[in-house]
Description:
Structural class: mainly alpha
Strand content: under 5%
Subcellular location: Cell membrane
GO cellular component, one term: plasma membrane
GO biological process, one term: transmembrane transport
Oligomer: single chain
InterPro entries: BP-dependent_transpt_permease (IPR050366), MetI-like (IPR000515), MetI-like_sf (IPR035906), OppC_N (IPR025966)
Main location: membrane
Amino acid sequence: xxxxxxxxxxxxxxxxxxxxxxxxxxxxxxxxxxxxxxxxxxxxxxxxxxxxxxxxxxxxxxxxxxxxxxxxxxxxxxxxxxxxxxxxxxxxxxxxxxxxxxxxxxxxxxxxxxxxxxxxxxxxxxxxxxxxxxxxxxxxxxxxxxxxxxxxxxxxxxxxxxxxxxxxxxxxxxxxxxxxxxxxxxxxxxxxxxxxxxxxxxxxxxxxxxxxxxxxxxxxxxxxxxxxxxxxxxxxxxxxxxxxxxxxxxxxxxxxxxxxxxxxxxxxxxxxxxxxxxxxxxxxxxxxxxxxxxxxxxxxx
Length: 301
C-alpha cells in the first residue's frame, strides 16, 4: 500500500478538513491575546455586578446620615472610607454613584445606538432625498457641541436619571449614525444583498437581516468607546450641578463637594475620583481591545 492509499484515521476514512472559524470567533481570539483588555473586561464586569448589587454590598443607604461622625477619616467609627460633611458614608455613596454612572451610561448609549441605527440604516439604504434630508439633519447636530446640547437638555428636562439618559443619548448618536450609513453604502452593493433582493425580500428585511449583522463590528468598536464617554459626561454634568437630584449620589457631585473640603477631609475627593478614574481607564482599555480585535490586520500580528 502506497502512502497515498493509507487511511488517515483508524476508521479507514479521511478526516474532514477543519471547520473555518467565523469572524466573531477570530475577533474573540485576538481580544483574548490582549492581556490588558481582558483584565479590563473582567474589571468592568465586576463593576457592573457591584452596581447591580449595591443595596446588598453598600454598608449604609446612600442618604443615611450619622451626625455624630461628620467628616471622619478613613476607617473611623465603622466607616471604611470615612464620611462627608453630613455624616454620610463615602463608601456607600461611591458604590451608589457607580450604579448611577452605569445606568446613565448604558441607557444613554442604548438610546444613541437605536437612533443611529434607525437614521443610518434608513439613509444608507433608501438613498436619494431621504438620505439627503437625514444627513443634513445629522450634519446640523454634528456641528452643535454635544456637551452643550446635553446641558441644554438637562436644563429643559430637569435633573433626573431619565433626563440624563435622554440628554446624553440624544447628544451622542451622530457619529454612530454616520458610521452606520457608511457601512450600509458599502454592504448593500455586495452579492448576498443582491441575492436577497432577487428572492423578493423587502427593504426592511434586507436592511435588518442582510446588512445590519455585517455592520455590527465597527459599530461595536464605537459603542465600546462611547460608554466611558457617557460616564465622563454624567460626572461632568454632576460637577456642574446638573446631575441627578440630591441626595442620589453622583461621582461628579461627590468630587465637587470633595474639592470644598480638600484640606480638612481629602478622603471625600480621593475615593470617588479614584474609582471614577479606574472605571474610565478600564472601559477605555476594553474599547482599545475591541478595536484591535476587529482590525483585519490583527491576523498578521
